[in-house]
Amino acid sequence: MGKKAAENEKVAGKGLEGKYLTFDIGSEVYGISILKVKEIIGIGNLEIHAVPNIPEYAKGVINLRDKVIPIISLRLRFGMEEIEYSARTCVVVVEIERGKGHLQMGVVVDSVSEVLNVSAHEIEAPPQFGTSLDTAFILGMAKVKGDVNILLDIDNVLTREEVEILGDAA
C-alpha cells in the first residue's frame, strides 16, 4: 500500500471511533453510534399503528410513553425483501437531527447483536462500489473481531424530505 493510501485509510476512521450498537439485517451486520440510540424494544411488545400516505418502508407509528414515534423498516429502506418478524426482531429507537431540532424514530432490525468498541484504526472509508447500499449514509466499514460491520450515519439514512414526512406523521 502506498503512503497516500495509508494516510487516507488513517483519516477514514478519525473521529468515528467509539461505541456502536450492532445489529443484523439479512446477512449483513450494521452499527449505529450508541450516542444516537435511546432504547431497544422487542417488536412483539409493540402495537404499530398504520398511517396513510407514507412511504412503503415506513411501518407506521407507536405510542411510547405518551410520545408518538414513527417506525421504519431498514430492510425495506435498503431495498431488501421484507420478512416475517421473529422473536429476535427489534425496534431500535434513535434520535436523529431534524432541521434545527431532533426526531425520535424507531428502526426495525432483524436482531440486535452487541455493543462494540470500535477504534479509529479499525474503520475504513466506505467502498465506492460492491454494496447494494447508497454510501451517502455509510460512515465507514469497521473491521472488528474478523468481521466487517457497516457503520451507518443514522441522520442520513432518510432524506430531509423523508424525515419531514415522518415527523409530520408523528
Global geometry: globular
Give the termini distance in whole angstroms.
49 Å
Q: What gyration radius follows from the Cα positions, in whole Å?
A: 16 Å
The CATH homologous superfamily is called CheA-289, Domain 4
**Looking at CATH, which topology would you report?**
OB fold (Dihydrolipoamide Acetyltransferase, E2P)
Order of helices and strands: HEEEEEHEEEEEEH
Output the structural class: mainly beta
What is the strand arrangement across the widest sheet? 8-1-2-11-10-9
What would CATH call the class?
A: Mainly Beta
- What's the total helix number? 3
Topology diagram in text:
Blueprint: H1 3-13, E1 18-25, E2 28-33, E3 37-42, E4 58-64, E5 67-73, H2 74-77, E6 90-98, E7 101-109, E8 111-118, E9 123-124, E10 138-144, E11 147-152, H3 160-169
The gist of it:
The chain has a single domain, classed as OB fold (Dihydrolipoamide Acetyltransferase, E2P) (Beta Barrel). It is mostly beta strands. The protein has 3 helices and 11 strands.
Structure, described:
With 170 residues, the chain is mainly beta. It is built from three helices and eleven strands, in the order αβββββαββββββα. It has one domain (3-169): OB fold (Dihydrolipoamide Acetyltransferase, E2P), CATH 2.40.50.180. 15% of the residues lie in helices and 44% in strands. Strands 8-1-2-11-10-9 form a six-stranded mixed sheet.
